[in-house]
Design goal:
single chain; oxidoreductase; zinc; Protocatechuate 4,5-dioxygenase, Chain B; globular; Xdiol_dOase_suB; six-stranded mixed beta sheet; 262 residues; two-stranded parallel sheet; alpha/beta
């Protein structure tokens, strides 16, 4: 069984990441996104554990995976068989899951889910050896954007204990407006750029109130791909800088823009 001890002596504060994950095929492809994720993984301090908040796990209440060996979930259809055959055999950490539950009343332990493609399609490039324990935190469908942001704040202490927190979604995600080539609607590019400017300016309140922004209904017809970003912004400490990578909007209405805090 993998354990993650809370001793944070001599541990650097780990960054927190929001990654625009895009298509599940990025797990298999050698492209500008997979290369950027691989290069980032080589630069990051090696974490003791990883906590992922993926767009693809929504629940009634907040849950955290607590199994010792999370399964690889293929939560999609219509892709090549090689993608369904792909496995990311990382361990879990029941001990870390139990600590998260103990610190944050209302979070429940989950023994059923595993890792969906929002997590493994990115992690397989960041940490291809699959040796680091990985947990997933679900998105509570009853929480408001502000409550998701505040839960991100509550998770800050984990960054000082060797836990890398990764939000995985897309700042613009509208498959109904997709164009299946490397191009983008003007409104999609403009929305991603506006969110980027707000993050750079530290205006978290405006990002949390994203529904009030122009073209939000087009850019984010449903919330799940945007909400992981709010956790990562909640993890930003006073004075911490942010950086951006994979800054591109493609396939009509998919923003691959990614954010690093710290």
């Amino acid at each position: 069984m993998n354990t993650v001890k809370p001793d944070n002596q001599n541990l650097p504060r780990l960054p927190a990441l929001f990654i625009g994950h895009g298509s599940p095929l990025n797990a298999l492809e050698d492209n500008e996104y997979s290369r950027a994720w691989a290069e980032l993984g080589q630069r990051l301090p090696r974490p003791k554990a990883i906590l992922c908040i993926s767009a693809h796990w929504q629940t009634d209440g907040t849950r955290v995976t607590a199994m010792s060996q999370p399964r690889t979930i293929h939560d999609f259809y219509g892709f090549p068989q090689a993608l369904f055959d792909f496995v990311y055999p990382t361990p879990g950490s029941p001990a870390l899951a139990a600590r998260i539950k103990a610190r944050m009343p209302g979070i429940e332990l989950d023994q059923d889910w595993g890792l969906d493609h929002g997590s493994w399609s990115v992690l397989c490039h960041l940490f291809p050896d699959a040796h680091i324990p990985v947990l997933q935190l679900s998105l509570d469908i009853k929480k408001s954007p502000e409550q998701h942001y505040q839960l991100g704040k509550a998770l800050r202490c984990l960054r000082d204990e060797g836990v890398l927190i990764v939000g995985s979604g897309n700042i613009v995600h509208n498959l109904q407006a997709a164009i299946w080539r490397d191009t983008a609607h003007d409104w999609a590019v403009a929305f991603a750029e506006r969110i980027k400017r707000l993050i750079a300016a530290g205006d978290h309140s405006a990002v949390v109130k994203y529904r009030e922004l122009s073209d939000a209904a087009l850019a984010i017809p449903t919330d799940e791909h945007f909400l992981p970003l709010l956790y990562i912004l909640g993890l930003q400490g006073d004075g911490e800088q942010v950086g951006f990578f994979t800054d591109k909007t493609t396939l009509g209405a998919i923003a691959m823009l990614s954010v690093q805090v710290g």
